[in-house]
Design a protein that fits this description.
Blueprint lengths: L1 H14 L38 H7 L17 H15 L23 H10 L25 H9 L3
Helix pairs in contact: 3-5, 4-5
Length: about 160
């Protein structure tokens, strides 16, 4: 019985993200306090600095998020973007594409050097850009719209391998 119970706990922990936010009891000490979302390009600790939460504050005050200053561009270096993109690729793409994006995978073709337009079309909509000739005729890839915020990183990584 101990093995079954441990197995069930492991499944529950994995399903809930190692217990973070899984408790339904109010005031449970295991439930982390909500934190504001990080602002792209902001230094650690600046999340509550000037302008970082202006959109949320404006919306709560009856204004709109568009009243807030525009978010700054990603301040990471190309090397930092590519490193982050490698993590995105390893976590989401290697099941079908090869561990090395320069070679064909079991289901997906080599993707190193792909254009931003192709990456966006394939990842977000599982489509090809108009006029693009696919490397394979299979239609196995499914849309992964949750990766939209990570497209600049993924693109930087794949283009760094040309």
């Amino acid at each position: 019985m101990g093995r079954i119970r441990t197995g069930c706990m492991m499944v529950a922990l994995l399903a809930c993200g190692a217990g973070a936010g899984c408790s339904e009891e109010a005031g449970d000490p295991r439930t982390p306090e909500p934190r504001p979302a990080p602002v792209m390009g902001a230094a650690p600790g600046d999340a509550e600095g000037a302008g970082a939460t202006a959109g949320a504050d404006a919306a709560m005050a009856g204004g709109s998020a568009s009243d807030a200053p525009a978010a700054s561009a990603d301040a990471r270096s190309p090397e930092e973007l590519a490193a982050a993109g490698r993590a995105v690729y390893n976590a989401n793409c290697i099941a079908c594409h090869a561990m090395d994006p320069r070679i064909d995978g079991a289901l997906g073709p080599a993707v190193a050097g792909a254009s931003a337009e192709l990456i966006a079309a394939r990842v977000l909509r599982a489509e090809y850009p108009e006029g693009y000739a696919p490397k394979r005729e299979t239609r196995v890839m499914v849309p992964l719209p949750h990766l939209e915020p990570k497209l600049p990183e993924l693109t930087a990584y794949l283009q760094s391998l040309e």
